[in-house]
Amino acid sequence: MNTLQSTERFSDRVTDYVRYRPDYPATLRDWLHHEQGVTSDWQVADIGAGTGISSRLFLDAGHAVTAVEPNAAMREAAVAWLGANPNFRAIDGRADATGLPAASIDLVTVAQAFHWFDPETTRREFQRILRPGRLAAIFWNSRRLTGTPFLEGYEALLQRYGTDYTRVAERYADDASMRAWFGAGWRGGARFDHSQQLDFESLRGRLMSSSYAPRAGHPQHAPMLAALRDLFDRCQTNDRISFDYDTRIFTGTVS
């Protein structure tokens, strides 16, 4: 998949993305502060920031955050949501060409978007913009595929109805790959439990925020939603289902 395609995949899904995508647990940010020496005066560059979900995590702790996002619709949504905060700004840039000055950033963060980036050109750009000895933190919510009837049924639904699900879904690196990417700069990693408690409309929105979910007018769209309704009805408790994740983080210096 070329870079242009990856940056535009979510242009027609911004509303659902803003409303229904999960945030990240505050324990992840706290781990960076308590275990990795990050402090609230560190300047953050949030690369591939999307609609600002990950940026918000660090703004809430007092960081100044520059959101770097190439997709105009998502960048505009981030500004609409977070732009009133004087510690926030959003710029048009990419992982391999952020547009940020050299040695200007204390903490580079990447949430969810890392699997779209070219590893080598991204490393060189992060090395350029980070101050000496400062950190990159790469993290994501990885949807659990098994463990409950709902999680297993949802995975089967995506396998059946997703337009290119098997090609793009859950493309995240494993622990060994992330250690190798950081190399000698590796500082540590952690895992956190996370979940969303969703009613049916929120579940539908969560599904439709995914780039591989067929849109209205596609022949698979209506059958997919009917299957989703059936899955929800079979698995709900008090009109909610638990959409569960493992939130993984990897940190280190970049050289």
Structural class: alpha/beta
Task: Give me the Rg, rounded.
Answer: 18 Å
**Distinct helical segment count:** 11
* Largest beta-sheet characterization: 7 strands, mixed
What is this structure's SSE topology?
Blueprint: H1 3-8, H2 14-20, H3 26-35, E1 44-47, H4 53-59, E2 65-68, H5 72-82, E3 88-91, E4 105-111, H6 119-129, E5 130-143, H7 149-161, H8 165-168, H9 175-182, E6 186-198, H10 200-208, H11 221-235, E7 241-252
Parallel strand pairs: 1-2, 1-4, 2-3, 4-5
Antiparallel strand pairs: 5-7, 6-7
Structure description:
The protein is an alpha/beta fold and 255 residues long. Helices cover 40% and strands 23% of the residues. It is built from eleven helices and seven strands. It has helices at 3-8, 14-20, 26-35, 53-59, 72-82, 119-129, 149-161, 165-168, 175-182, 200-208, 221-235; strands at residues 44-47, 65-68, 88-91, 105-111, 130-143, 186-198, 241-252. It has a seven-stranded mixed sheet. Helix 4 (53-59) links the parallel strand 1 and strand 2 (65-68). It starts with a helix and ends with a strand. The relative contact order is 0.17. Residues 1-12 have low confidence and may be disordered.
Summarize the structure.
The protein is an alpha/beta fold and 255 residues long.
